[in-house]
């Protein structure tokens, strides 16, 4: 457990935190008054925030199930995992493939405090956890935890679920992606979701402004930029679409594009 922080962690419960706000919106218990106040303010501006959170989570479940059950992927690298909210990636993957291996990556103190909850793998599989920021690609890729859990000579599914909209353009999210994908072999996959103002500009821009005023770096991006994150990859049908439209479990999407306001996509490294 050497990479997990062993010293006491200051969770700064007086300051709203993205992971805890998201947890509250999803109906979780791992949040504090500051998180709930900001979440409720956001819900007054945009009541569809809960729909966005649910659709984001539902996409994660569908895409991991697709990769494990239909594609045969057995290795998952989930960066920016956030607070444990069932089902987690390893639970979905191991339901189809008990031998699936998952490495979670995050640098949020509240998430680190729940790390042990994420490490409950099936007996046949394995999970582990790395304390790192997505911007520190070298730290992630050189981690002994990653190297002992995943075989980077075999295909890996890289999951960036609701993460890149927290990374400003100045930090070059495209370059971060390129460095991560360069380390993965042919046959690997990238799955991501990203908030957008394309469908509901007024509500989403006001929500993003509220988050920025409270210290959360929120970067809504249009379709062209989100689609651009898959440059060089083979798109998996239906391509980059509003999350409810990505291979829904029923014939009809569970939410309107404007209510979800989050893009989702999957691409394969040739």
Protein architecture, described:
- It is a single chain.
- Helices cover 39% and strands 14% of the residues.
- The chain is α/β, with parallel strands linked by helices.
- The chain has one domain: 3-Layer(aba) Sandwich (Rossmann fold), CATH 3.40.50.150.
- α1 crosses α2, α2 runs antiparallel to α10 and α3 packs parallel to α4.
- It is globular, with a radius of gyration of 17 Å.
Detail the topology: elements first, then pairings.
Layout: H1 18-25, H2 33-45, H3 49-71, E1 75-79, H4 89-96, E2 101-106, H5 109-112, H6 115-118, E3 126-131, H7 137-141, H8 144-149, E4 157-160, H9 173-182, E5 189-195, H10 201-213, H11 223-228, E6 234-235, E7 241-242, H12 257-260, E8 262-268
Parallel strand pairs: 1-2, 1-4, 2-3, 4-5
Antiparallel strand pairs: 5-8, 6-8, 7-8
Helix pairs in contact: 1-2, 2-10, 3-4
Quick overview:
It is built from 12 helices and 8 strands. By secondary structure, the protein is of the alpha/beta class.
Number of helices: 12
Q: Identify the overall geometry.
A: globular
How many distinct domains?
1
- What is the share of helical residues? 25-40%
Radius of gyration: 17 Å
- Going by helix content, strand content and strand pairing, the class is alpha/beta
Keywords:
270 residues, alpha/beta, Rossmann fold, eight-stranded mixed β-sheet, 8 strands
């Amino acid at each position: 457990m050497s990479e997990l922080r062993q010293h006491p962690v200051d969770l700064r419960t007086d300051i709203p935190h993205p992971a805890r706000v998201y947890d509250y919106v999803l109906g979780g218990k791992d949040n504090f008054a500051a998180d709930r106040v900001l979440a409720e303010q956001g819900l007054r501006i945009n009541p569809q925030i809960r729909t966005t959170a649910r659709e984001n989570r539902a996409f994660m479940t569908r895409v991991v199930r697709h990769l494990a059950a239909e594609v045969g992927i057995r290795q998952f690298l989930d960066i920016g995992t956030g607070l444990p909210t069932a089902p987690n990636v390893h639970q979905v993957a191991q339901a189809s493939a008990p031998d699936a291996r998952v490495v979670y990556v995050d640098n949020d103190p509240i998430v680190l405090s729940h790390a042990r909850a994420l490490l409950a793998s099936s007996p046949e599989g394995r999970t582990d956890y790395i304390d790192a920021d997505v911007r520190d690609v070298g730290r992630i890729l050189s981690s002994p935890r990653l190297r002992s859990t995943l075989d980077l000579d075999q295909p890996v599914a890289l999951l960036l679920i609701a993460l890149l909209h927290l990374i400003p353009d100045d930090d070059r999210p495209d370059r971060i992606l390129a460095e991560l994908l360069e380390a993965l072999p042919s046959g690997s996959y990238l799955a991501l979701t990203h908030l957008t103002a394309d469908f509901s500009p007024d509500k989403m821009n006001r929500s993003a402004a509220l988050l920025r005023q409270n210290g959360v770096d929120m970067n809504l991006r249009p379709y062209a930029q989100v689609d651009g994150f898959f440059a060089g990859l083979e798109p998996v049908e239906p391509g980059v679409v509003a999350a409810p439209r990505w291979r829904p479990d029923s014939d009809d999407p569970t939410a309107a594009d404007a209510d979800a306001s989050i893009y989702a996509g999957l691409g394969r490294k040739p």
